[in-house]
Design goal:
The chain is mainly beta. It has 3 helices and 22 strands.
Length: 228
């Protein structure tokens, strides 16, 4: 019966899905197949841990499936490269072409009802946190490290990795970049093509821009996901 459910989900790779679940989860959890893996997925590194802070059900975590804006990445491979810890707090969907990299000793925490449309990358070297009900569009990069060192004259590093904290009910527009040390409050919208390098502290605003042009465009807003 459970395999019939899988077959009805277009694009599921049954063998990768079974391997993925039994690699990461205790047998009693793995049997429920809470993790579904799409056929066009590279399981590049399967180390670290997946910790469910919710009751895992069939398909709680979906990796590499279609979403809005995924036409351009129809043949793009999703990449799973995990050495650290991934915390799942509810229903989670990483769209087709997603690249998830968690370095050793790093921690990525995903809130409930999380969704990435597709072709986006989350690279976690230290600590990245998402609240509940977050929606990420396509072609997004979230990165908590520079991947190179800048040193002062005394050889002290000036640009260490720094955590990213994204609140509840945050919508990140397409082709946006969120860099290390950034905090985004609850109920915010990040405008398309923004590059955020600094934190904001006001809920329910639209944030836009890059460099010195990062600013709040509008206050006291709300947003909701449309069923397309």
């Amino acid at each position: 019966m459970r395999f019939q459910k899988i077959k009805r989900l277009m694009g599921v790779n049954i063998f990768k899905t079974i391997y993925f679940n039994y690699k990461y989860l205790p047998v009693k959890q793995a049997f429920k197949l809470p993790c579904l893996v799409c056929y066009n997925t590279s399981l590049s590194v399967m180390k670290g841990e997946i910790i469910f802070n919710c009751k895992p059900k069939f398909g709680t975590l979906r990796f590499g499936f279609n979403g809005v804006g995924t036409i351009d990445c129809k043949y793009t491979r999703s990449i799973w490269e995990v050495r650290g810890k991934l915390f799942i707090n509810g229903k989670t969907n990483f769209g087709r072409g997603s690249k998830i990299s968690i370095k050793e000793d790093a921690k990525l925490s995903i809130g409930a009802n999380f969704s990435i449309s597709g072709n986006s990358s989350i690279i976690c070297c230290k600590d990245i946190f998402f609240g509940n009900d977050c929606l990420l569009s396509w072609d997004i990069l979230i990165l908590d490290s520079d991947f190179h060192s800048i040193l002062d004259r005394n050889k002290r590093r000036l640009n260490p990795a720094s955590p990213i904290n994204i609140g509840n009910h945050v919508w990140i527009g397409c082709r946006s970049t969120i860099l290390k040390g950034v905090s985004i409050p609850n109920d915010c919208v990040i405008a398309a093509s923004s590059v955020l390098t600094k934190s904001f502290n006001t809920d329910s605003v639209i944030i836009s821009g890059s460099g010195l042009q990062q600013r709040v465009l509008k206050e006291n807003i709300t947003w909701c996901k449309e069923d397309l």
